[in-house]
Amino acid sequence: MMGMAEDKNGIIWIATANGIFAYDPISRKVFKKFKEFNEMGFCYRVTIDAYNNIWFNCQKGYWCWMQDKQQMLKFGYEMGLPENRLEAGMAKGLQGEIFAGANDALVVFNPSVIMKYKVNAPAIITDVLANH
Q1: Please, what is the Cα angle at 47 between 46 and 53, to 5 degrees?
Q2: Which of 15, 32, 50, 89 lies in disulfide reach of 2, CB 3.0 to 4.6 Å?
Q3: Is the separation of the CB atoms in 64 and 109 below 8 Å?
């Protein structure tokens, strides 16, 4: 285990070497497992914002599990964000922002902006693969 945080529902979110997991201490069961097809890999730090979203960093970027929307957001290093691996942590600020320490930088996410963001573009399926 690399990091842990408790959300408003009493669920313990655990960052591990193989993704992030949600543990319910009452039932004593892991009920969510996010591995994202090895896209996440090692998850290092985890924190919870005022909207009860789960923020964490992994090998390939910063992530946010929006519990109310049941949606995962990825902010990848390929977007130009500074890397945050073992060097630093993540924390919720007094104004609700999420701070992520990085190599010679500080990344600040504003959850209130992210919660209001909507995409109205239609989804177009261009490829389908079944059975390998």
Answers
A1: 110
A2: 15
A3: yes
